[in-house]
Amino acid sequence: MKTTLTALLALGTVAQISTASAAPKISAQSIIVNPAQPDLNVSVRVNKDTTGAQNPAYRIDERISISTTVNRDAYVYLFNVNPDGSVDQVLPNRLSGENFVKANTTTTFPAADANFTYTVGGPIGQNKVLALASLTPLNLDQISSFKTAQDQFATVTAKGQDGLAQALSIVVTPLPQNSWVSDTAFYTVAAQNPVTTGSLFVGTNVSGATVTLNGQRLGGANVTYSNLRAGTYPVRVQAPGYSDYTTTVTIRAGGTTNVNVEFAQAFTPAPAPAPVSTGNNVLDFIGTLLGAITNTQMQDPARSAYDRKVSDLQAQGYGLQQTRQTNTGFVGTLAKGGSTVTVTVDRGANRTVRVNVSETTTYRY
């Protein structure tokens, strides 16, 4: 959200807090969360969505207001992550005065009697508003600063959702458990004129992720991709060290489709295949002896057959999703567009290898 006047919200109070610390969790959905689940609560809403469960659309130059509610006296900090990755600090600022919010009250920014307004600007696409509540004031010097004495709003140095999450993690990590909490609201900035294309936002909780839509690589995650033709497409999200995430998304004209991917467990490659029997005791002995001498082992014929078949399919545009070793060979899954291919290779009797390829294609009508 590029606002005519931007603002950030801070929450603070002195209360009984525990001395244990809770490491923050970077989240695709909520940017940053406290895994300790404190009894401190904060909610953030935009004026077109009082439930917090929707993704309302705003036109450029349309007014917008942001409201927050806390169950305990606290300091609330508001950030807006724009579709292009830039971050606005909504509160605190030099126009709104105190950023302290009383327990069980709802405070709206800007207030009804404020001498300024928020006006939605570009770019078009998905926006996220992060509210971070703390029982004590936070030091944001490493995240944002007022460049001059005349600036009414601080400049945020963090870029993108993941950059903001990493920066805020450093700020809240020393805090005691149960002393901070966050919430996120969503809204879309739409074009002034009716459009036949839509946008896709893919959020992740890790860095270095890439997005592929309908077989075409779009680029990195935590970015809004616009001017996408309306329709239903397969999407794949990949991150180094993690298993691929695949799903189907529907792009709607004039709207933004949200996909949030929580990579939870790093992908562990299958262990190197153990020496296999050729079916001939003499050949097995010779192979073991040669392996001991050369510090190698005989090539598994099932693996060779599997690798050749996978290479053939990759040359046809299929992408390898996973490889799994079985007691008798190997099983792999590849995908291209709406088609999924399973390759099964088994070692048989009499030194034979069986290769089976099955394909499943999903059509939409």
Automatic annotation (TrEMBL):
Q: Name one Pfam family in it.
A: DUF4384
Asked if Iron-sulfur is a keyword of the record, the answer is no
- Residues in DUF4384 domain copies: 58-137
Listed A to Z, the keywords are: Signal
Signal peptide positions (record): 1-22
Q: Where is the PEGA domain?
A: 198-265
The cross-references to PANTHER family, in alphabetical order and at most eight, read: S-LAYER-LIKE PROTEIN (PTHR36194:SF1)
Protein name as annotated: S-layer protein
Source organism per UniProt: Deinococcus caeni
